[in-house]
Amino acid sequence: MKYRNVGQTGITCSVIGLGTHQFSGEWGQSFSNKDVSRLFSKAQELGINVIDTAPSYGNHYSEKLIGKAIEKRDDWIIATKFGQTYNSISSTTEFLFDVNHVKKQLEKSLLSLDTDYIDIYQFHSGTNKDFMNEDLWSYLNKKVDEGKIKSLGVSIAHNLVEENDNLQVELSKDYGIQVIQTVYNRLSRQSEKSLFPLCQRNNLGIIGRVPLAKGFLSGKYSKKHIFSSSDHRSKFGSKTNSHLLSRVDALRSEVPEDVPMSQWALSWCLKNKSVSMVIPGAKNISQLESNAQASNYI
Asked: Are the CB atoms for 14 and 2 separated by under 8 Å?
């Protein structure tokens, strides 16, 4: 495993982290405490030290599984988020960034994760209006001073990246923010245009999310694949899914014959030195091992 520094946070992370949206049960598979404990044990063996989660991943359910699975807190860098909440795949998402709600959400995240502190606490895909809230950031920076939060971050909404709207990145230093999380993969390269250069100029760490394009870059799906109704991807629609998988097929010529497409896709993201880490999900030990091996191709 290779490691990189995350901006000016003082955090050294494994370049391959572990995203945990799948723990919510919204990706066609449910997870038990034993399942998560096995994954974490193997992740440590592989040198992975980053876990990324959010309250909205099953209404704190992912966080609760993580809290029960971690044995030595200081062995891990835990990144979670605030402001977005929903209970399940069929629920309506709520965006609640007022200070009182965030206070309650932070307390519940700390309790769910069974921890006294969060390493990276991220604004979760809110609007610029939600973001420009002096009271919110004043409160969160007080929590940094108290040690409840080590570093503040923004998981930027992808529509803002597509619109080349970098206001939240431009104002990050004013609010004590040190980390930017953004969608980045071989099918979605908008972040390269201006977001990455801006982050570099301001010494902001970058977390690449959705590096496997929600699993489409895993290389295991045909153009005619139909996702089950319990899988988050089923709501994209068959037309969109078929289009994405056609684009994946067109990339196969770029992948070396002896390298799995998923490893190629992850290493492709990390060859951009401005990216501190990527956070692919993993449903089982085999996927976790494959993700970790992508570090060999950087």
From this structure: yes
Q: What span, in angstroms and rounded, lies between the C-alpha atoms of 246 and 255?
A: 15
Q: Give tens-digit pLDDT for 137-160.
A: 999 999 999 999 999 999 999 999
Mapped onto helix, strand or coil, the DSSP state of residue 182 is strand
The CA distance from 165 to 244, in Å, is 25
Q: What is the mean pLDDT of residues 30-56?
A: 95
Q: What tens digit of pLDDT does each residue of 163-210 get?
A: 999 999 999 999 999 999 999 999 999 999 999 999 999 999 999 999
Q: Which structure tokens are listed for 121? A: 């606490």
CA-CA-CA-CA torsion sign (101, 102, 105, 111):
negative
In the chain, where the domains are located: 3-220+258-297
Residue indicated by tokens 């956070």:
279
Domain 3-220+258-297 classification at class level: alpha beta
pLDDT of residue 91: 56
Q: Are strands 84-85 and 149-155 parallel, antiparallel or unpaired?
A: unpaired
3-class DSSP state of 3:
strand
**Is residue 88 within 8 Å of residue 30, measured between CB atoms?**
no
When computed from its CA atoms, the radius of gyration of the chain, rounded to whole angstroms, is 18
